[in-house]
């Protein structure tokens, strides 16, 4: 919930290689109050079955920059193990699954202003990602 003195943040992850939400990805939230200020770890959450983090911590008053750290390596390792166990068809999204994930972590840093809400979706696959300011 935002007030006139703070910004608020939400996020969700879509696994574009599977065309569905990415469940169980750990997300850490950090903030700072100025470009030269130290980052303050605020806590984190994990994505639910809909790929959303519904309980990220509130931002402190004076926050100017936010960082979301997504721990995606374990998500893809678990997904690969499940695919191999289920003996899924050899679709293009599954052919390179033995190589691991190229980006084990994704860190997104963005500027905020008080009173605004920032929804930052992560579109993810084993070899790339994209982010944008959503609504």
TrEMBL record:
GO terms for biological process: purine nucleobase metabolic process. It catalyses: 5-hydroxyisourate + H2O = 5-hydroxy-2-oxo-4-ureido-2,5-dihydro-1H-imidazole-5-carboxylate + H(+). Residues 9-134 form the Transthyretin/hydroxyisourate hydrolase domain. One of its GO terms (molecular function) is hydroxyisourate hydrolase activity. PROSITE patterns: TRANSTHYRETIN_1. Keywords: Hydrolase, Purine metabolism. It comes from the Bacteria. Its EC number is 3.5.2.17. It is an enzyme of class 3 (hydrolase). Pfam families: Transthyretin. NCBIfam families: hdxy_isourate. Catalyzes the hydrolysis of 5-hydroxyisourate (HIU) to 2-oxo-4-hydroxy-4-carboxy-5-ureidoimidazoline (OHCU). Homotetramer. Belongs to the transthyretin family. 5-hydroxyisourate hydrolase subfamily. This is 5-hydroxyisourate hydrolase. It comes from Streptomyces monashensis.
